């Protein structure tokens, strides 16, 4: 196997290398579309399972809406079509004939879903209506990069309708909090939340809340968004309900989503020179067991003990894989599973068997004296649980520390701009709110990632006029 | 709400009516594409969950492949393209430009997946390779009907590669058995398995095995297929591996799938004049609780007991819904949940509370003296479990009995054809194997559903020559 590029010198190439070496994805024949191989898809399934449960706990129900959307639907919301037009894939022919009206392959489903809401919502008693969809979407992106920007991706998109603006805003924020907690607690990635500037808002939204994370090269990654759509779609799709006073009014809507981009965030936050690192709570495999033996008598003894340990771990719900490959040496296996980022490796050989012990190896521990631990077989489940727990926590702490190292406060663009352009990082500065000042960060290839609640800076980073709000500026994926 | 059409007089209209009345699906603006509303999608999630587990137990792993397939890929397998061409939806424009090569929206993923297998399979050690995908597919059908034939549908498609033909055939049959057991044990629908005639085979398959079910109007529904593709795709996509003797040879492939059509099968097998009937094992809601009260003091007492019962049932994994709507009368609620086919209704009012009991109502029991049972609150979980179990079994027995009533043995087409055309049903006859004789069943709007292993009939139903095998003839959806 090819050696991975240096993660510190060429992060972008390391990213490509690690995806190939870990058999995570494969190029497809369609530009910017990738095959999610079983190991990767299993990570997505684990993400889905937890997130789906949390979304349902908010009173949201899953449903499924058509993939193909009439082009005319798409044009009903002016800002929406303006934002998405350049990215649409269009079906013009079907069943051997040219279609009367072209059909757009959904890039997002607001238009389809709100056209249905118009049929389903009649009275205030029908509200709030909370629907979620797990689906594939297609956006024809110019420059693609696996998970971060792809022609097709998988996601969940939530769409809700509420009685009034206040309720819609509260719900959009509830989802933002749900995303933040999920990303921090399960993916072990520290999150900053904030509001997007007008130019970075979702096409058709009144307000976009986002969770922003900092990758280990100091660039930001937007990992999820929650939009207050307010009346934009409910008016263009003529959704009306009778309120308690008997008047016909439009509901206030929200939409929100996270995508397979979360996977890119995991890789770019936790990966290291040896390969991927999977956070234990969502890892496709939490423990890989490597049996070690030379003679056939040893093999039988070891394998029967391994089978016993596997059953015991699986009984308690751990995700375990036993590597029985008889072509690879144990050393080659260690290497293989390190690249795939399995958090805990368990080794068991004849000498361990004599001592009724196994060796547990911590994927992320750098200190060689602490990397391995010898554990009594009788205590395996508890020790594995403790080690997975420790790794989950350490990953988050490590990422948090690194993020703090990248966080700076600054005042004037000409002072921090060159450093930002050269070494990335996240800059908290003041902003007067003008789009002209916002545009100036592009000189250094950066964008405003989000507006903060705080107002520590008195003057705008660009024009030096009075600042309205603090903002975070960074280069972003 | 509109009354449902008579299920015995106009089954097709009843089917449309019941789908609307139960808020199961909705028409979308795209011809033949339907919205799966939450209650319906929840049924699909339950089907998916069990089936996914069973598929994984065969050693098959999930993965995800791109939606859009280059048109040229599609043309590599001659029979495949011939079979699917009339049904393709084609993306010709994307990102505001005409594409150099049109992209087909996948109607099935053989071409995409086997192009990947060609990269992944190098040695006999890579086999068997077993991959499954849960996805949406698009087929531009002329006449559509919800779940049975739709422009877009949801499904799982399994694709495997094996060392030799024998292994591929064994695996294709293993999946057929898995489908049969799932449909019988979970959906409570009796299944007949058999082989398809050449003209009814999947485009590109060597052999197609199918599970066939008989709907309550006596028409057959193919509910799942498992194909031995043998060398067709492995040769067109140049999949080669080094066998144990060091030679480069092609693997033998299989593909297999079930779709949201399963939902149509459930409705057309179990539904009745009152509405849908959901088999307990996959029912979105297994128990609906209707609290009954008049005064406010009653309400508090009843609702606190209901909450206690709900928690107790949910703790044991039952899917429960409490109908707290304060606009509908209890009677209107009974009606509503009968239409939706919830298997068990629980009623609890002040008099029941006094007696420490609840009323359980069996959705499918016709005998009024047996329909209701009074159950001590202390025994609720056990009694609910027993009743759900009984309903699951009764549904299967009822469907089996009805199917047997529709099964006939016959000899000559002119004798049974008119009766088949008029009253539907399933006819077991002999067949010489000639396509000309096969074509003759079309005179009575029927098709050969499958070939059987038996050979009870000596002569062909059409030409009276010697019969090679028994077949089943029926009209089909």
Structure commentary:
Two copies of one chain form a homodimer. Chain A has 477 residues and is α+β, with helices and mostly antiparallel strands. The first copy, chain A, has three domains: 11-270, Bira Bifunctional Protein, Domain 2 (BirA Bifunctional Protein, domain 2, 2-Layer Sandwich); 287-403, Rossmann fold (3-Layer(aba) Sandwich); 410-474, C-terminal domain of ProRS (Translation Initiation Factor IF3, 2-Layer Sandwich), CATH 3.30.110. In chain A, 36% of the residues lie in helices and 26% in strands. The first copy, chain A, contains 15 helices and 23 strands. The first copy, chain A, has helices spanning 11-21, 38-57, 71-74, 78-84, 110-120, 165-185, 232-236, 261-270, 296-315, 330-339, 350-354, 368-371, 380-406, 413-423, 435-440, and strands at residues 25-27, 34-36, 61-62, 68-70, 89-94, 97-105, 129-138, 152-162, 192-195, 207-214, 220-230, 241-242, 248-249, 252-259, 287-291, 320-322, 344-348, 357-362, 372-376, 407-409, 426-431, 447-451, 469-474. The first copy, chain A, has a seven-stranded mixed β-sheet, with helices on both faces. A five-stranded mixed β-sheet of chain A has the order 16-15-17-18-19, with helices on both faces. In chain A, strands 20-21-23-22 form a four-stranded mixed β-sheet. In chain A, α9 (296-315) links the parallel β15 and β16 (320-322). In chain A, α2 (38-57) packs across α6 (165-185). Chain A is globular and about 80 Å long. The two termini of chain A are 28 Å apart. The model of chain A has no long low-confidence stretch (mean pLDDT 96). The interface between A and B is large, with 57 and 57 residues. β5 of chain A pairs antiparallel with β5 of chain B.
